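dumping this here so i dont lose it
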């Protein structure tokens, strides 16, 4: 359980950094991080950091299609953790 919390923490920080980089690039009109890459980070236990970054940076909150996939990634991640809970705990 402790290891899983560390993974969530580390991946959330990594995901927040990716969101910050993407928001900065969007503002400056530079190269962007693909939405698929952001969704992969969310699925890989980074969704709590993505949620926080969306609110802090006001990034990816209005685009409905992005939000639908974001919440699907959250559900997939939580479903996988629930399914694998006996193996990890």
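and the seq i came up w/
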């Amino acid at each position: 359980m402790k290891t899983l919390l560390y993974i969530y923490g580390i991946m959330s920080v990594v995901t927040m950094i990716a969101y910050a980089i993407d928001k900065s690039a969007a503002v400056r009109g530079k190269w962007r991080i693909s939405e698929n890459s952001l969704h992969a980070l969310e699925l890989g236990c980074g969704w709590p950091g993505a949620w926080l970054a969306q609110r802090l940076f006001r990034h990816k909150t209005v685009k409905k299609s992005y939000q639908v996939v974001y919440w699907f990634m959250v559900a997939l991640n939580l479903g996988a953790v629930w399914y694998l809970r006996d193996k990890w705990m």
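Residues 2-28 form the longest helix (27 residues).
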